[in-house]
Amino acid sequence: MEESKIKVSGFLTPEELNNISLSQGSLFQDKDNLFLSQKSNPLKALTQVNMSMKILSFETIECAKEKLLFFEGIKKFKIEYNDIHDELVQLNKSVSVNGCIKVPLNFYVNALYSRLIKGYFYIADSFTINYYICFFVGYSTSRNESLNNSSIYSSNKKNSSNDVFR
Q: Can you give the pTM of this predicted structure?
């Protein structure tokens, strides 16, 4: 099935993207596979993918001239496809996501958030979906000039993003 006939949702619209400053965060690219169980009905035509991503926690490590923010999160997929008998099949998949961004040393990061920018989904075989996504991880900060630079590690923080599976 052509990618253009797959209904993909959960990503920013061009209008929403115009309202996001990409200077306070980082863009990430992710290319991976979603594997269906061999017990599932074989995939014939991918019809719909609804995706969300949530940052679950992050850890701050101070370096000589900047801070590194290591984050952990989860990508969730709601998938609809037609099987080899032309029956509609719906399933949910979850995949972990990790990454790191750097911020100036004098920034105190209050929270991380994610925004899905663009996604492409393709059928690789009867039990595998290839995907490519571009997403943005941003942060909210306050400048803290009096921050004690001798602290090397800070505790985990929790934050949620727009999750379509609430």
A: 0.80
